[in-house]
Amino acid sequence: MAVIELDAPGRLDAELSQDLPADPEVAESLMRERMATPEWQETANRYADSYLGLARAWQLGIEKVPAVVIDGRHVIYGQPDVAEALNEAERLMGQEGRR
Fold this sequence. Notes:
2 domains; elongated; TIGR03757 family integrating conjugative element protein; Integr_conj_element_PFL4709
């Protein structure tokens, strides 16, 4: 089961910009230093994963959050608890089967 957090890129941006100085040139220099470290690859991977998740949600047509997508076809909106969303989906699909 994949969990896509649509706010992940923004949270990562906030995490990276925390403690940066107000001077843009100094902040840029500090970010260049950070990007030169071996740990930066992990951060770059986190960015890539977060934007892949956003792209997948867009492909699936997610219109609002919270949303739980089941089997790439069914979407349950408004339920942040995945287990509860799965229960709701089973109930709804059971109702469809009886029609």
